[in-house]
Every structure is written in C-alpha cells, then in structure tokens.
Amino acid sequence: MPRAAGSLKLRVHSRLKEQRLLVQSLLRLRKQLQGSLFTRYGRCGKTGCACREGQPHGPYYVLSNRSGGAGSFAYLDKAQVGRVRDLVRRHREFRSGLRRLQRLNRELDTLLRRYQEATIQDAHRSLALGKRT
Asked: If one looks up domain 3-41+56-132 in CATH, what number appears?
C-alpha cells in the first residue's frame, strides 16, 4: 500500500478508536439533569427584619430550566444540592462530548474521502505501470 493511503488508514483507525472511547464515556453519563443550579438570597421587605440591615434570607438553592421556550424553577433542599449539581455537570459533559463526537465524525468523513481518493490514484498508477511493461 503506498505511503499516502497507508498513513490515512492509520489515522482513520486512530480516530475510530477515539470515537469508540468517546461513545463509551457518553453512555456512562446516562443519569443527567438539564438546567442551571444557583443560590438565591431574598429580602422580605418587613420593617425591622434583619434582611433590611444587609443580612438577606437564604440561601435558597434553585434549579433553573428552560424547555420549549418557557423557563421553570425548582427550589431544592440543601440535602439535594450535591446530587443535583453532579447531575447538571453530567449533562454539560454529555453535551460537550456530543460536540466532540460531531467534530470527530466530520474528521472521519474527510479522512475516509481522502483515503478513497488516494486508493483510486494508486489503482490508476498501478494500471499505468502495467501498460508500460
């Protein structure tokens, strides 16, 4: 196999291995939660309340989510925050991994097309050499 096609083939195999590992890691992120987690503090406005003196009520833990153009909020207990934070992180990792997978797939497509062109050129060269003898 000529050098160009051989080099491309090695790169394709390398990207396929990377693709397989990436898909496996994405599948491990099965449990996830879309949204943003934030902490909120509030002021009640009652006269004489400590919040009027700079000590707001809270913290309140809120999961914000947007679906179908409408936003929603869910208030969480302090005990839920760690688990929800992990699930939100997993969702972001999944989305990031999907973007990487899309880039990798585009690169694989390009490499395979270049490999096809290289093998066609090699076949033409070998036919041309065969005619001369």
From this structure: 1.10.287
